[in-house]
Amino acid sequence: MNVLARGTNHPGNLALLPFSNLQKLREERPLMFVRGQGIYTFDEQGKDYIEAVSTFYCVNLGFSDEELIEAAVQQLRALPMYPSGIHRTVPVVMELAERLAAVAPVRGGHVMFATTGSEANDQLVKFTWYANRVAGEPKRRKIISRRASYHGGTIATTALGGSAALQEAFGIPTGDSLFVSHPTWPIGALPDETETAYTDRLVEELRQTIEEAGPETVAAFIAEPVSVSSGMFPPPEGYFAKIKALLDGYGIRLYADEVVTGFGRTGKMWGSETLGIEPDCISCAKGLSGAYQPISAVVMSDDFYSRLEEGANAAGIFNHGGTYGGHPVSAAVAIKVLDIYERRNILGHVQSVMPVWQKALASLEDHPLVTATRCFGMAGAVQIAPPGEGKPAAASPSLAPGGLSQQLYMAGLAAGVVVRPLQGCVVLSPPLIITEAEIGELTRRLRLALDATLAALPR
Prior knowledge:
Layout: H1 3-9, H2 22-27, E1 33-37, E2 40-43, E3 48-51, H3 54-57, H4 66-78, H5 91-103, E4 108-114, H6 117-134, E5 142-146, H7 155-158, H8 164-170, E6 177-180, H9 195-213, E7 218-223, H10 239-250, E8 253-257, H11 271-275, E9 281-284, E10 296-301, H12 302-315, H13 328-343, H14 346-362, E11 370-376, E12 379-384, H15 403-415, E13 417-418, E14 420-422, E15 425-428, H16 436-456
Helix pairs in contact: 4-13, 5-13, 6-12, 9-10, 14-16, 15-16
């Protein structure tokens, strides 16, 4: 059979779409978006949808920004592709490295580019093992992450993801991974437990995990400042300060996964800045190019980088790279993103609409399905449960969507708003350019979706 003909008759049957039901893809045409403008995307029939999660938490500057498009076009015309490696690169790559290091919340700042957040975190693991071997600590391989977190889809980053079911399904080796609880204050607290006591309990769990593993085998602790993918629970008071103090005592590094929280999502350029975190390394992606081109980066402290240089000097070369790491078109777009953040005062805009955003989500708490709302910067979550069930009892959210949240997601599509369903909630992270009026429209559509979901429940 002609491949093109098959694709025409069954448009979804040849492409495996991530996080999708594969049989359904063979049998039903997936929702197809054909254009976007601002915070909206449009399907084949012309219906508009508010992208309330910026697709995958990444289209921070919205769709079809002419400056970003033009930056890509200009670089395509000048030099569309040249790999960075073997002591060769392109000026825009060097410029982006300098500018990214200057704004990153890492002392010193040395940059290695990649293409995706998954790849950035993967190479951070690889660099960690390399650096510790150079330092004469080859046993320091284990990396601690938090259950229900998400750090990527490679083998190494799935091993850090904290989802035991996912790791088992793919046969992922997790021998160098350690897991501790993800903070889910207040629903994860014990009866009558204060916020301080809850924080101290999580820190003690981390200490015990390190001791049981053997401190000499533990290399780093990786965490998202705020994990939207894990249900958008802001960390409890004092959490990261106490975590950092404990790690420092053991000589264990702290890595901040800023793939989602970087570039303004929390109200400052970095989630680490908002929460007062001082990481040894950060990973970033998504908002780095406004998602217009695939690019990611690891930014390393002077101390961490010095070990890589020492090893490279001994070997004569730093034997790591990828064809598309620091792609010149991606780098040119990322530079334009940094220009736009300064010239349009994107952070100022985010800070001005954050109170409106928080108030809008809180206004949904009178709905019979809504048990709570959470906000941090321009991210949020709406916790839901069938009427009468009250607050959720589970202490840790699951990455898999539950029945009610999936129903709300589908009702949202019908109402023209795209949300992300998780277990017991939907999470939101709209483009940072969203206006007060657009926040009102998003909330209106989400309430329509809640009403439709409630009406469809069995009586």
